[in-house]
Amino acid sequence: MIDLRSELPLGGDSATAYIPWLVAIMVFLGTLAVSGVNTFDSILQGWSRSMTGTLTVQIPSAASETSLSETTAQIERVVRALNATQIVDSVTVLSKSELNNLLAPWLGDDIGDSDIPLPTLIDVTLTDEAPQTVEKLRTAIAEVVPNAVVDDHRRWFGHLIELTEGFRLLALCVACVVAIALALTVVYATRASLAEFKDIIAVFHFIGAQDMYVATQFAKRTFLAAFKGSIGGFASGTVTLLLIRWLAQNVESGFLPDVSLGLSFWLTLPFIGILAALLAMVTAYITVLGTLRTMM
Amino acid sequence: MTLSRKEKPDEEAPAVQLDSVALRYEQGPFILKDLNLVLPADSIRFLTGPSGAGKTSLLSLLYLAQRPSLGAVKLFGTDVTAANRGRLPAIRRKLGVIFQDFRLLDHLSTFDNVALPLRIAGIAETEIKENVTELLSWVGLEDLMETRPAVLSGGQKQRVAIARAVVNRPQLILADEPTGNVDDEIGMRLMQLFIELNRLGACIIIATHNEHLVSRFDFPRLSLADGCLEEQA
Ligand SMILES: Nc1ncnc2c1ncn2[C@@H]1O[C@H](COP(=O)(O)OP(=O)(O)O)[C@@H](O)[C@H]1O
Ligand SMILES: [Mg+2]
């Protein structure tokens, strides 16, 4: 078992009193950042699962009432062409009411009655999801209805992936900034403690303590202070996450996919705190060594 | 007491050697000027001089609190003025220092104060307990082992300081006005302890301005005046 007893006073210096608070905030933010990235990832995975092997064909609405029959003919041609390719599992033409349901969250319930021209949507599931099959379908449809749009969600999905990467990067930056802030504060706090405990450290020296010994005393002390903060940050972060989950469950989930943070996520949470405490400890250790080197 | 004569690694080397040592604080006047001294390992000396003569300053050079402005300080044959920082702790562990103001650690109990040099040296806790308990009984503090220094009397603090200084059986003991805070009887017991430790092989320097004390023992005397050191038999 590691001996965490320190020969230094446990309290008494004002600088170390900040460390638990700072670490608590850091761990709290870290917890939220990690869970944010995780949530986004799992949303994306859910979408990606439900979207590979599907595509949507859009047939633009005819400009006038007279060409309604033309649109119906176009739909028939597309469906026939799709079925002819033999790589199509199912073809569903979305009915007007299904379309209205899809658009209702954005455009309101009475969209069906308005005369906004709506395209016809055809959902297609494929038996084979290789990119070249999508291309094959694209050309087959272009032959029969040149102005039909084939959307394999890739473009939209690509943006989302970029967004997630950006989000991940942002979370990483936040974590780095907080970590640097923590390290700098620990440097400052340790220097202040060294000054405050100057006489005690002098006694350590006179009776033959090595720099490593003194540094270890400070490191233990800082670790304990930081660990206290870690526990606070971990607890408040976890409570906040559970609260958000509970709130999200109560929200009518129109287009929020069902997201559950996996076991591995909950298992990594405590490590954020341990990591922060270790960072504080190592920083204190290095700071003490650096300061002592200037003494006799 | 289980003090035993220590093996001396540098059999021939004097415990203390000063070569043209001078000391000034910042740009101030020289407090110590051109000191030369050789003390064999088994010597015992009074260091005398009026208040402000530089006794504490000279001792501080010996307990490695600072380097001399000029010259070289050698302890047990090692030039500590030139020595690498990393080598100093090993030399400091051969020293026992009784500070004028004791410098006990107020947040530690009597026991832990005395145990500190042993803990720093990495001695096993069972051995520490045995040694420290025995030493504290010997200086008459067995009932105050868990007491903090803040509530001890001057004389009790002094005994804790002495116990801490000798617990790791140092080869050079530096005592700064050790009888300053104690009555005559304890002062005499203290001197008996120093004589005993010297007999066991430790080199001892006792700084004092107490002429009465000096006159009662016939140790050779080093006297400081005007920054110069004079040896008197
Ligand atoms: N840290 C210091 N900085 C500046 N001057 C000091 C310092 N320590 C001692 N002095 C000066 O050095 C002189 C000798 O002091 P000291 O060594 O304490 O003498 P003593 O112990 O013989 O009374 C005094 O004049 C004192 O003011
Ligand atoms: Mg003095």
Distance between the termini of chain B: 30 Å
Radius of gyration over C-alpha positions of chain A, nearest whole angstrom: 31 Å
Bound molecules: adenosine-5'-diphosphate, magnesium ion
Q: How can the largest sheet of chain A be summarized?
A: 4 strands, antiparallel
Summed up, the helix count of chain B is 7
| Total domain count of chain A | 2
Average of per-residue pLDDT values of chain A: 81
Beta strands of chain B, count: 10
Strand arrangement, largest sheet of chain A? Answer: 2-3-1-4
Alpha-carbon Rg of chain B, integer = 17 Å
Q: What proportion of the residues of chain B form beta strands (DSSP E)?
A: 15-25%
Query: How much helical structure, as a percent, in the residues of chain A?
Result: 55-70%
Figure out the total of helices of chain A: 8
Low-confidence stretches of chain A: none
User: What summary fits the major beta sheet of chain B?
Assistant: 6 strands, mixed
| Rough outline of chain A | elongated
N-end to C-end Cα span of chain A: 33 Å
Concise overview:
With about 300 residues, chain A is an alpha+beta fold. Chain A contains eight helices and four strands; from the N terminus they run αβαβαβαβαααα. Chain B contains seven helices and ten strands.
Describe this structure in words.
The complex is a heterodimer of chains A (296) and B (233). With 296 residues, chain A is α+β, with helices and mostly antiparallel strands. Chain A folds into two domains: 14-39 and 167-295, no CATH class; 61-147, no CATH class. Chain A is 67% helix and 7% strand. Chain A contains eight helices and four strands, in the order αβαβαβαβαααα. Chain A has a four-stranded antiparallel beta sheet, with helices on one face. Chain A is elongated and about 100 Å long. The two termini of chain A are 33 Å apart. With 233 residues, chain B is α/β, with parallel strands linked by helices. Chain B has a domain at 105-160. Helices cover 31% and strands 24% of the residues of chain B. Chain B is built from seven helices and ten strands. In chain B, the strands form two sheets. Chain B has a six-stranded mixed beta sheet with strand order 6-7-8-3-9-10, sandwiched between helices. The longest helix of chain B has 16 residues, at 184-199. Chain A binds chain B through residues 7-10, 12, 199-200, 202-211, 213, 293, 296, and chain B through 63-67, 85-86, 88-93, 95, 97, 103, 105, 107-108, 112, 116-117, 119-121, 164, 168. The structure holds adenosine-5'-diphosphate (ADP) and magnesium ion. Adenosine-5'-diphosphate binds next to helix 1 of chain B.
